[in-house]
Amino acid sequence: MDWTLIWVLGTFGLYIGIALWARAGSTNDFYVAGHGVHPVVNGMATAADWMSAASFLSMAGLIAGMGYGGSVYLMGWTGGYVLLALLLAPFLREFGKFTVPDFVGDRYYSNTARLVAVVCALFVSFTYIAGQMSGVGIAFSRFLGVDFNTGIFFGMAIVFVYAVLGGMKGVTYTQVAQYVVLIFAYTVPAIFISLMITDNPIPQLGFIGNIKGEDISMLQKLDETVKGLGFESYLASTKTSFDIFCITAALMFGTAGLPHVIIRFFTVPNAADARLSAGWALVFIAILYTVAPAVGAFARHNIIESVNETTYVPAADYAAGSQRVSEAGESPSPAWFANWESTGLVAFDDKNGDGQMQIRGPAAPDGLENEVTINNDIYVLANPEIAQLPEWVIGLVVAGGLAAALSTAAGLLMVISSAISHDLCRRTFFKNMSDKTELRVARVAAAGAVIAAGFMGIYSADLAFVAQVVAFAFGLAAASLFPVILLGIFWKRMNREGAIASMLTGLIPTFAYIWHFKLGAGKTATPDQWFLGVSPEGIGFVVMILSMAVGIAVSLATKPPPQDIQDLVEDIRIPGKRRSHGIADSGMAPVD
Question: Per-residue confidence at 588, pLDDT binned at 50, 70, 90?
Answer without folding.
Answer: very low
